[in-house]
Every structure is written in structure tokens, then in C-alpha cells.
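Review form for a predicted model. The reviewer records the input and the model, then writes brief findings.
Reviewer: anonymous (R2)
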Amino acid sequence: MASGRRACVTVLLCSLCCMTFAVILRTIDNDVWVNEFDSTELTCFIESTSTNSPRIEWKKVKNGVPSYVYFQNKISGDLENRALLIEPATLLIPNVSRSDSAMYRCEVAAIDDLKDFDEIRIRLAVRVKPVVPQCSVPSSVTAGHFTELRCKESQGYPLPHYQWFRDNEELPKDPKTSIRFYNSSYVMNAKTGSLKFRAVRKEDAGEYHCQARNDAGYENCAPQLMKVYDSEIEILVLKIAAGVMSFILLTAGLRLARKHICCSRRDQRENDYRVPPRDSGKDDVRADEGHFQHKPSFVV
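Model under review:
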């Protein structure tokens, strides 16, 4: 009975020591996700301490390299003028940037406590909305042939998933689950953005666009028309017609340019060789009379 009482007293004393003579930290979330440009808090609460003014520091660890975020009672580093310390030790970032993704450490040193140091680690991951994806859609294909459409985006985080649309209608992941797309032979990869047709059909023709989406948002590429022809001869004829039209336009442009150059040179020659206007005969006579006027002494 006495030994049981001593054990209870020991446990009580240890609890009191821990509560009174140890600095203990707590956080709400060790793994924080936030959208870019939103506000977030990295919570760091001091549960207990016997020190009146414990030393508080925040460090950012990126690629294994630590740097100060809060040191000597002020924000420093790349969060300077962008973050605030909320009493007692929570870090507030009002406008989160994608470069803020990192591991953060809240460190508190309390010299008056027996356990005079504690820290918590918080991983901050910033979601980034995708940019407009780059889509590759062939303008013309032959029925019965293999065809691939591609979609790629490089800025979004986490990595986006891709969805294809035809004539603004979402393509089901499996065409066999839809009456409208049942006879289509495509295979869509949501991770890579690839849309492959094993044997494209006339019914597969239309305007295609791709959407890149993650938890931060989504973006679409501009629709692109894909035509499907029955034979390669039709495609060849269209290509020849397009080439002929391009040649005609190029020839017409060259002729207009040459004509413009010739007109410019003609105008220049006319300006260079134009005879300057002469004075009237009346003025000439007066000038001559001024130089060769006869005096009365020479009159016979």
C-alpha cells in the first residue's frame, strides 16, 4: 500500500516538473497545404514554460539548407516584409508564394526551464494553379489510322490531371460507357495528357481541347479542329491546293513589291533631272542693260 502511494507521488511530481520546468510546444497541423497567393498560418503554441521571455526562432529548410525566417525579434530572409509573428510564436504569411514551399522549424529556448529547448516541424506545400496547357491536335487524319493528341502543362502543383473535350463535350474515360462514344477506339491517359485513337473514325472529327486541373484550379487550351478523311488521296489533294494557293499569294505579293520599288525609283529620277524654272525675259533684259548701257559720248 505504501509503495503504491509512493509511486503515485512520484508520477505527480514528475508531471508537475514537466509542466513547470519544461518548455513544450504544440501545433495544429504539421502538414499545411495552401493555394498560391492565399494566406496561411504556421501555428506554434507554447504549452508550458517557466521562462518569462523565451527566445523564439523560425527557420526554413529547403533542399537540406536552413535559413532564418524569424531571428532576434524580426522577420528576415525571403519572408522579410511578407510575414508576421503572431504572439506568442505563430508565423503568419498573408500572401503565399510558390517559393515558400519548404520545411519550417519553430524553435523555442527557455533558459529558466530544466528542459530548456523544444521545436516543432511544419511542412508547407503551396498549390499552384496550372497555366494554359500546350495542345497538339492533327488538323487532318485518315480514317482507320492511328492518331494521337497530346496535352502538356509544366507549372501546376501538384501535377495536374488532364481531360479531353470534343465539341465542348467531355470525353468519358472509357468510351464503352457512353452511347455517344461507344464505337470510338480512343484511350485517354489522365496523367500524361495523351489521347490515342487506335483506328480513327469519321465520327471522331471535331474541335478538340484539353483541360489541365489540380486542387488549385484549371486551365483550357484553345479548341483545334481535327478533320477525318476517307483516304489519303483527299488529304493529298487538300495539301496540293493549299500549296498552290500559297504560291499564288506569294507571287502576287512579290509583284506588288516589285511594282512599288519601280514606282519609287521612277519618281526619284524625275525629281533628280527636273529643269529648274528660268526667270522671265524681262528680267534678263534689264540685267543686260545694266552692264552694257551706252554713254552719249559714243553716239555718232
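Findings: The radius of gyration is 42 Å.
Further findings: DSSP finds three helices and 21 strands in the chain.
Recommendation: see findings above.
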